[in-house]
Write a structure and sequence with these properties.
The complex is a heterodimer of chains A (426) and B (175).
Chain A lengths: L12 H13 L17 E5 L11 E7 L2 E8 L7 H5 L8 H5 L6 H16 L5 H29 L3 H22 L8 E2 L2 E2 L7 H23 L3 H7 L7 H7 L4 H5 L6 H4 L20 H23 L19 H6 L1 H12 L7 E9 L2 E9 L7 E5 L1 H6 L2 H5 L4 H11 L3 H5 L1
Antiparallel strand pairs in A: 1-2, 2-3, 4-5, 6-7, 7-8
Chain B lengths: L1 H6 L4 E7 L2 E6 L4 H10 L7 E9 L8 E8 L6 E8 L5 E2 L9 H11 L3 E2 L33 H5 L19
Parallel strand pairs in B: 2-5, 6-7
Antiparallel strand pairs in B: 1-2, 3-4, 4-5
The chains are: A mainly alpha (426), B alpha/beta (175).
């Protein structure tokens, strides 16, 4: 079999120069010219906003020369829901519902991120039981997120079967979430100061069943794709990025680690119980599609290692702190005691007061560093909430990754970056 | 921190430590040279721009806007927060030549907050549609939008002299 199937004819030098001038013509390759201004022989192709290969409402305007992309320009904002403006009108606990809808592939991680950040501001610590449960749910949803990313990458490059193998286990994670808090997607399962409620009785059993079955299927998935010649041809060396460039663009998470930078907030600034569990950070070499795929596969293995260490050690005890300025008093006390009734009323009607100041705090979600910059004026509602969305920072480098590549590679690169429209637009 | 103090004493108004992160209130006239040395100087080596945002302090502070930059050193993993105060119509300085990742975030701040960045090659709206009037994240932007007539059609074909209704009452009963 030839090394590369259907290599396009090399362009002559004059055409190459012309095309390069055209690409540089719009500064930073971002502005878009009229279709009439396109040089001869180029065609404008709209990939999206609604397209099976964009998984979400993303638009890419590609100027193509045959099969080769000369210029790419991502257009974003189709899923903008003004979370940052909403945050200024919501109390700290209400804003939790917005975080569900950011990265809608792994919403519990965003819940955990927001509550961890607010708890850090308030200088309180959730009880150990809540922390361990949060860690387990965190890693389960990281697995679900990586299943989607890697599975769909397979679908996009023509290997549908692998996706069907692992998709069942994403369903299992969602079933656990549903049993836990009643929702599959809009989980809102954490509260500032702990959890919404205790875990359900069969939680440990369900997670263990997942841990028992999933590694076998993941192995099948790997043999279907990792050693598949077609898959390798489509992915290896496609859309690479150097470590220096990745850092300059503000990459975080698996995409940065695939470029060979072992940065992970779970190790660098441990939160929850990540400093007590044993796990490793996988890194890649060239930041190409294949490396990003492998890094995510290995991260799933490491996540399972973390869950394995946590699942037998969920401590007994309360799942939320006992401070009724922050968490809801139990219902039976509200109905029988005046003081608790007042606390309940104050929390529901006014919310939690957060000391004035400016805070930035971040945690590691499936896509990288999810940070919140909170400006508080001492009241129950933040003066300003800004969300550092990992997608937003790395997706801007998309033109650099796909230009001079083939259209089909553009789809593979977009899949492997794991761009989630909800997180991207905020 | 002491190193910073001695090296750039005239580049900032004050410097403090807030929950383990050094916070610098920079002077705008020295801002770009400060940022450049923060990246290039091996003593600091802040090679990653982690976050970039603007805050509207309408009625809370004398200078209305503030730009906030959070830098990270990939070697030492230390972080620093640099803040620059901006008056109402003042332009900010773009750091796109120092960290190219500032491209979209600066456009987002321009789009939603209305702060113009000098030195950015393409100051256009990023998230709101082209031709949209107003900057939604400003504190004086009416929550309900710019009046009842502001429909999709008018976003697509904006009427230039359409102004925001003054002192529109906030809707009650959101709880």
């Amino acid at each position: 079999m030839s090394e590369q199937l259907q290599t396009p004819e090399p362009l002559d030098e004059k055409t190459q120069n012309e095309l390069r001038d055209y690409a540089l013509y719009s500064v930073l390759r971002d502005s878009v010219s009229d279709v009439e201004d396109l040089p001869d022989g180029l065609m404008r192709l709209n990939l999206g906003p609604s397209h099976p290969a964009t998984h979400g409402i993303l638009q890419n305007i590609l100027d193509v020369d045959g099969e080769t992309i000369v210029r790419a320009r991502p257009v974003i904002g189709y899923v903008h829901r003004t979370f940052e403006k909403l945050g200024e009108r919501y109390t700290y606990n209400q804003f939790l519902t917005c975080t569900d809808r950011m990265n809608y592939i792994s919403p519990p991680m965003n819940n955990v991120a927001w509550t961890t950040v607010v708890e850090e501001i308030l200088d309180i610590k959730a009880p150990q039981r809540a922390q361990v449960v949060r860690t387990i749910i965190n890693e389960l949803s990281r697995i679900a997120d990586h299943i989607i990313c890697n599975g769909i990458l397979g679908v996009d490059v023509g290997g549908y079967t692998g996706f069907l193998y692992v998709y069942h286990f994403r369903e299992q994670v969602y079933n656990i979430l549903e049993k836990m808090c009643g929702a599959r997607l809009t989980t809102t399962f954490t509260r500032i100061g702990g959890l919404e409620m205790d875990i359900y009785p069969d939680f440990v059993k369900d997670v263990k069943a997942f841990l028992k079955d999933y590694p076998k299927i993941l192995k099948d998935f790997n043999t279907l794709l990792i050693h598949n010649r077609i898959f390798i041809d489509r992915c290896k060396g496609v859309g690479p990025i150097s470590a220096k460039d990745a850092l300059a663009w503000g990459y975080t998470g698996p995409n940065l680690r695939a470029a060979g930078v072992p940065m992970d907030l779970r190790k660098d600034a441990p939160y929850l119980v990540y400093d007590k569990v044993d796990f490793e950070i996988p890194v890649g070499y060239d930041g190409s599609v294949y490396d990003r795929f492998l890094v995510r596969i290995e991260e799933m293995e490491q996540s399972m290692r973390i869950i394995q260490q946590c699942i037998d050690n969920i401590p007994e005890g309360p799942w939320a702190i006992d401070d009724y300025h922050v968490t809801m008093p139990p219902k039976e006390k509200v109905y029988t005691s005046m003081e608790e009734l007042i606390y309940h009323f104050k929390l529901v009607m006014h919310g939690i007061k957060v000391p004035a100041g400016e805070y930035y705090s971040a945690v590691e979600v499936a896509n990288g560093e999810l940070g919140f910059y909170v400006v508080s004026d001492g009241t129950e509602k933040p003066h300003r909430v800004q969300v550092r969305r990992p997608c937003f920072w790395y997706y801007q480098s998309y033109p650099e990754l796909v230009e001079n590549g083939l259209i089909s590679d553009a789809v593979a690169v977009m899949s492997s970056l794991n761009v989630i429209a909800g997180e991207l637009d905020g | 921190m002491t190193n910073l103090k001695s090296r750039f004493a005239n580049s900032f108004y004050h410097i403090e430590e807030n929950r383990g992160m050094v916070v610098v209130q920079a002077r705008k006239e020295h801002f770009l040279s400060l940022m450049k040395s923060l990246r290039d100087d091996p003593a600091f080596g802040f090679d990653v721009l982690m976050n970039l945002t603007g805050v509207d302090f309408l009625g809370k502070k004398e200078t209305r806007f503030e730009m906030v930059y959070i830098l990270l050193s990939s070697k030492t993993l230390s972080r620093i927060r640099v803040k620059v105060a901006l008056a109402e119509d003042e332009h900010a300085l773009s750091v796109i030549a120092i960290w190219k990742g500032a491209n979209w975030p600066e456009r987002e701040v321009y789009d939603l907050m209305g702060i113009y960045f000098d030195g950015h090659p393409l100051m256009e709206r990023l998230i709101m549609p082209e031709g949209y009037i107003g900057h939604p994240l400003r504190k004086d932007f009416p929550i309900q939008g710019l009046g009842e007539d502001y429909l999709v059609e008018s976003i697509l074909r904006p009427v230039k002299n359409q102004a925001a209704p003054a002192n529109q009452e906030e809707p009650t009963g959101n709880r």
